[in-house]
Amino acid sequence: MPSINGIKASKCLDKYEIVFVTAYSEYAVEAFEVNALDYLTKPVSEIRFLETIKRIEEKLRTKNIINTIAAENNNEIIFLSFDDILYFEYFDKNIFAITKNDEYVIKHYKSLGSLEKDLPQNFVRIHKSYIINLNFIEKFIKEPVSLEMKNKKLLPIGKTHLKEVKKILKI
Questions:
Q1: Same domain, 73 and 132
Q2: Residue 13 and residue 9: Cα distance in Å, rounded?
Q3: How many distinct helices (H) and strands (E) make up the chain?
Q4: Which residue would you say has higher pLDDT here, 74 or 41?
Q5: Residue 49: which domain range?
Q6: Nearest to 115 by CA among 97, 103, 99, 100
Q7: Partner of 71 for a Cys bridge, out of 104, 121, 146, 168, CB 3.0 to 4.6 A?
Q8: 57 pLDDT higher than 70
Q9: In 65-150, which ranges are continuous DSSP H helix?
């Protein structure tokens, strides 16, 4: 860069995660002093690039500091804590967040798949219509294969999700 180098530029970008990709290995120590997420030297191998991608994904997962989701309630937008949500249900072209005492419409997601990507790790897809909070499972039922949640609601486990659910639940 003609007027400023990458190290100096990164000092101005403290809200962002930085990955340096450069031909100059001699600046690596300085890069990590400004909290670079990674430092790649050209030519970058595919394996090294994929390691960096994994590092970025992990950082994004752990950096997810938002612990609420916006939901509609009558004429208001309220913010539900993920800790209060038992599960999400897709029904009649709407996504509902189900809590112990109520249900709320989640409008800013078009599908459970798009919602699933933004949820904390304790939420798991069990069916095409359900994503559950693992903290609110009461029982695993063998026939028909389903989960009983703390609110006594029985949720089916889809065939495509059963193996993963059993693995997560260690059953």
A1: yes
A2: 7
A3: 5, 12
A4: 41
A5: 6-63
A6: 97
A7: 104
A8: yes
A9: 112-116
